[in-house]
Amino acid sequence: MLKLLKYEFYNMFRNKWILFYFLFFLILTSSLFYFTKEPAKVVATLLQMVILVVPLISLILGTIFMYDSRNFIELLLSQPINRKSIYFAKYLGATVSLSAGFLLGVLLPYLFFLRQIEGSAEYFLYASLIVSGVFMTFIFTAFAFLIATFFEDRVKGFGASILVWLYFTLIYDGIILFIIIYFQQYPLEKPVLVLSMLNPVDIARIFVILQLDISALLGYTGTIFKKFFDTWLGMATSFGVMVVWTVLPLTLGLWKFKKKDF
Fold it and tell me: What is the Cα–Cα distance from 39 to 258, expressed in whole angstroms?
């Protein structure tokens, strides 16, 4: 597995899309710090891009990576190599490479502008943004691998990836809004709290915004979440939910990969 992982790292870091991904966040974060030296404002603005761009790029590049590796996977399977080792090596190669591009893109400008930051440096707040972005990478790359393993046809696979991204970033919030309006005469706090945990994008946003006094960005689900949990308990709960969201699609993808007839 370690030998395969070393190859996957080398293969992913040669990918130009990783470089573009890194440069996108580097330029965006540098621009935000250039115009405002307050980390809280930078995090509030950057968070909206993280919960949209990171899942999309993770899904698209993860799906491309898995489909392009199909012939190599068939070659590996002809050798006495455990399927679990192949799957995890490819998954870690993709996620660690994407996470490194995101991490360096948002961390380097912060370190560069650290001396110019006005007031508190907000170390923990900025770290929570990075943790959310890394979790989004691991979660949606796991979804990408699951989709690419499930669908033989590339077109269907890419279509499913886009639908997953649209569902979690746009459609899901619309569904919750419809439920809130339609059942407004009923007490919805606890059902909405459960529904918020069924969307990793909402949980990642709440994980960061619980530390900010910006009620407008919390949304209805975030407000309910903050009502039931204090800041630290809420962050611990959201962190645990993101771990579950990482393990679930990864386990399903591995199970499908083991059963798949190449």
Answer: 45
What pTM was estimated for this model as a whole?
Answer: 0.89
pLDDT in tens, 165-211: 999 998 988 888 788 788 777 777 777 778 888 889 988 888 887 77
- Copy the structure tokens of residue 38: 């307050």
Helices 154-166 & 123-150, crossing angle to 10 degrees?
Answer: 150
Three-state DSSP string of the chain: CHHHHHHHHHHHHCCHHHHHHHHHHHHHHHHHHHHCCCHHHHHHHHHHHHHHHHHHHHHHHHHHHHHHCHHHHHHHHCCCCCHHHHHHHHHHHHHHHHHHHHHHHHHHHHHHCHHHCCCCCCHHHHHHHHHHHHHHHHHHHHHHHHHHHHCCCHHHHHHHHHHHHHHHHHHHHHHHHHHHHHCCCCCCHHHHHHHHCCCHHHHHHHHHHCCCCCHHHHHHHHHHHHHHCCHHHHHHHHHHHHHHHHHHHHHHHHHHHHHCCC
Residues in CB range of 161: below 8 A, 6 or more apart: 59, 60, 62, 63, 143, 144, 147
CA gap 41, 53 in Å, rounded: 19
Tokens for 136?
Answer: 């989004």
Contact 97, 5 (CB under 8 A): no
Instruction: Give the pLDDT band of residue 236 (cuts 50, 70, 90).
Output: confident
Domain boundaries, the chain: 2-259
